[in-house]
Amino acid sequence: MTRDIDGLARDYVRLVLEIDTHEPGYVDAYYGPQEWRAAAKASPRSQEELKAAADRLLAQLGGFSATDTDSAARARVLAANVSSARFRLDMIDGVHAPFVEEAERLFALRPELKPLSDYAAALAHIDAVVPGRGPLTERVQLFRSRFAIPADKVDDVMHAAIAECRKRTLAHISLPEGESFTMELVKDKSWGAYNYYLGGNQSRIQINTDLPVSIGQALVLGCHEGYPGHHVQGIYDERAYRTKGWAEYSVAPLYAPAAPIKEGGADFGVDLAFPGDERLEFEMRVLYPLAGLDPSTAVAFDALRRATADLDGALLTISQMHLDRVITREQAIDLVAKYKLVAPVAAEQSLDFETEYRSYVINYASGETLVRDYVDRVGSDPAARWAAYEHILSTPILPADLKQ
Ligand SMILES: [Zn+2]
């Protein structure tokens, strides 16, 4: 006898909620029945019991025969989610796999790493964009420092940025009435910004101000954490749970095959919402004046931004070498400083993130490539591109599906 997909989905939610009692923070968002969470907290199964439960659930999903396409898609994605959770349970127990394998088992996406020597041309290009004497990293830092938003303007600039990201998203995607977010400036975090999706179509967005926030980051963060990124992704997940009754969408584990799609989609969001030169145009017209920065300098900064984007993949290679203990922490900091063109203190923040979240770092660069290539395949028509993005938000989907 096979169980129905909704029952299997509820077992999965219970599994995830109980894993969170062994690894606080494993659940990134939950807006299902509060009694489920209370029950998980009150009497969680042991790690061994959870592993056995995950194995059982995987076997049941393997034997599940769907009678409709929705159920088939849900069962496939659920199986990948349970498989990821099962491996996370091993990791909580101290099992370590090599970086690439860990990434593949947690996120169902095998990152393609290139040797650092492949990024020599990108560094040479940046050298031409920011000419001058002295080491390239220092020149770029000095150049970038002129584009920091003054601390007392960060709040205003970020609100203006998110408002524009929201407006452009709403032009293509309909969101429920009353959806909203709050934004806070915080300190002492290993990340640059975070979205806590609270349920009820509400988010709490936090921006870390340990390091200066660059004017070039405002729209990136607004799109990534807000619209059409994490806030909108949360709304779509919650909609699948509330309107379709798909229980698995009531919970979002931090480590899951959805992560590269969500982080990648959030990173890609700024290019979707601001195609071509529209980003630069909005920055020059609105954000630079609001920050008290000279708009005539924006073109040069934009050129640097485009040039440094080619270095994104280098950070994965460095993470792999560091986490697989090919290089020391000190060597990793030097390499991050070199390839991210930042000061050692910023390189350390990057390393702190990687030490805490490990192979989660692949979800940005590898995930963005995945989502970008998928949306690019429909061409340049904005309506078609947003429709492709919305399809990703509203369908049970795995990273491999975006490659087809
Ligand atoms: Zn994110």
Detailed description of the structure:
The chain is mainly α and 404 residues long. The protein folds into two domains: 91 residues, no CATH class; 288 residues, no CATH class. It is built from 18 helices and five strands. The strands form two sheets. A three-stranded mixed beta sheet has the order 2-4-3, covered by helices on one side. A two-stranded antiparallel sheet has the order 1-5. A hairpin with a 2-residue loop joins strand 3 and strand 4. Helix 1 packs parallel to helix 4, helix 8 crosses helix 9 and helix 17 packs across helix 18. The protein is globular. The protein starts with a helix and ends in a 10-residue tail after the last helix. The relative contact order is 0.13. The site of zinc ion has 4 residues, from helix 11.
Summarize the entry for a quick read.
With 404 residues, this protein is mainly α. Helices cover 61% and strands 7% of the residues.
Question: What's the structural domain tally?
Answer: 2
Give the names of the bound compounds.
zinc ion
Largest sheet: 3 strands, mixed
Counting helices, strands and paired strands, the structural category is mainly alpha
Percent of residues in beta strands: 5-15%
Distance N terminus to C terminus? 33 Å
Strand order of the largest sheet: 2-4-3
Number of helices: 18
Q: What are the secondary-structure elements, in order, as H or E? A: HEHHHHHHHEEEHHEHHHHHHHH
- Low-pLDDT sequence parts: none
Radius of gyration: 21 Å
What would the principal axes of the Cα set say about the shape?
globular
The amount of helix comes to 55-70%
Strand elements, count: 5
